[in-house]
Amino acid sequence: MAVVAAAAFRLAEAIRVRGQMSAAMLIVGIVGVALIAYGMLGFFGAFLSATASLPWSSGDTAIPMGRVEGAVTDADGVIYCPSSPWGRIQVYDRDKRFIRGWPVNAFGGVFRIHLDSQNHLEVATARGQMLYVFDREGHLLSKASYEPRSYSDFDNWRGTVVWIPTPFYLLPLTHPFIAWGVAALGMILLVAVTRQRRRGPL
Length: 202
Description:
By secondary structure, the protein is an alpha+beta fold. The protein contains three helices and nine strands; from the N terminus they run H-H-E-E-E-E-E-E-E-E-E-H.
């Protein structure tokens, strides 16, 4: 919020100092502030969700996924998609329509998923070294530490890469790097509009 407020103040101050600003420049400045706000939302929203500071109250809540690495598919064609940035697993049917989702306490870190012989979903976290087992409805069946094993022991849980249809304007919510890129673009636009032009020689 402080970053967005500072960006808005900078634009307002530039308007005040110049007295007048062309409509085009004003629009570019507003777009810059909006992109900064959207980028911050994408980054900090994911951070709060992954650290369990933003708990989800409903399994019906769908987070934009976009490109997913490490997805697994069961015998019925149901697709399980992990989202480490959001600390969440989302389930889709064979036509990639959202079914449900649930949080994973991965302590803000990455995790991998795997289907066992009983069609239960196993989840190994890099941080905390936890091994969770969920049923296909998202109910937690068991949890335990996998020590003294290491996270690298689950390297074979690679899954596949899938694309979950996502409108382009929601892509900043799919990964923090994209969110930061959007915020950086907004900052570039804002600086271009508000920077003071150098005065020529008298």
